[in-house]
Fold this protein.
Amino acid sequence: MITKIMSIGLKGLEGYCVQVEVQAVDMGEGFTIVGLPDASIKESKERVKATLYSQGCPLIGKRIVVNLSPSEQKKNGPLFDLPIAIGILKSLRMIGESIPNSTGFIGALSLDGSILPFEGMLAAALAAKKIGFNRLYMPFNPDLPEIIINEVEIIFVSSLRDVLQHLSGKTVPELYLAKKLTEEIYYEKDFQQIIGHSVAKRALEIAAAGEHHVFMIGPPGCGKSMLAEAFPSILPPLSYEEKLEKISLYQLAGMDYEVIHQPPFRAPHHSASTISIIGGGQHPKPGEISLAHRGVLFLDEMAEFSKKTLDMLRQPIETGKITISRVRSIVTYPSSFLLIGAMNPCPCGYLGSESYYCTCTRRQIQSYKNRISGPIRDRFDISLILQRVNLVNSDELQKESSAEIRQRVDKARDFQYKRYGYEMCNGKATYELLLNKGGFQDNVISLLQKTAMQQNWSNRVQLKILRLARTISDLDGEVYVTDDALREAMLLCGEQKSV
Ligand SMILES: [Zn+2]
């Protein structure tokens, strides 16, 4: 008898429906799995055989053929153990009940019949709804937070016996995930702790409001890292779906997720390999750019990163995702992050300093700056030049907390979402969209054109200014972009030469 059991395969973070076809006959002996299985699936044979043996179902004198379809997609991971075992039992008529196509099974098997969690489990579960399942049997992992997927009944199982009992309508011990996804927000670094840097704080508020990438230049120890680390605290918190997406990505990368409710902050070292930053590898895994999805990617000492790594950032910055091509499969991971790049003004770090002499030659400085190519520099809407803050003379009276700034950011985001009709920020808006919907009146446009002529600004620079000016006006709650907003945007983009 041939049976069909439904399961879920993973292509990056994206799940798709896999049909596990099993034929078990009494003639001959053997166990074959076809349908582009990888090594871990080929080993399924041994695990499934041993499990069924321990459950009192030896496969002696049986010939088993398993076909995983769609057959053109390479499949990986041990998650098909459970559907294969169920398929064999059904094919041998050891499960009498019919199993509808809207029921899915995922899980790795241990030799004693336990069902074990696997990397990417949550991503697979999240795909269940899209595929059209209304029931999913999956392994229990007490480390996962509570998962609620509308319209999908999730049944956590810890052994094959549990699955069989549940299928036959008997009760099984119900397993619940205790960890709740809370709304509570806690940030380690708060803007209130940062002394001085009022210009940088304002620029970061604008960056958070409109999703603008930020480039910071300043001497060592001037506070670049501190500002970047505090930045997630002024970003809007993650929604429920975004939190689950974040945990899925971390789980897929085989990493512990720390704090789930706040946007991620990733700061890979410049010596990290391209694969670890971009993602990929023999068994593709998300890289730092995907772990930073919906949060911040901070590249300190940006000039020290390899040219290859920096160039590969261009695709995710444009599209919000990264596609990695493997033999017979293409894996895509989400990677929509806000990039903060930082570097010293010169190799020694003291160019422009009031208290130290720079010892670099002009040539050294130029070649240092050239390490970041034009196309990458173009991606930064905001360029900041930072100086060290004199802690004693800092004249700030009252420092704002991140929560206060975040409120303004949230409001400015609402304005943008309403204007564009979906969740898009000004940092991603095109030239045409800004001119059509951005509320730019003729006087503002002619001021920009006049200055652009004087400054010899490219279209790219003008686009940055339009985007920034729109965000500044959104923070002010203005329907039309003001002259003042435009002037501030011109300063922020860092392209202004004194004439
Ligand atoms: Zn120097």
The radius of gyration is 28 Å. The chain has three domains: 2-167, 191-234+241-390, 404-492. The CA atoms of residues 117 and 139 lie 5 Å apart. The longest helix spans residues 402-420.
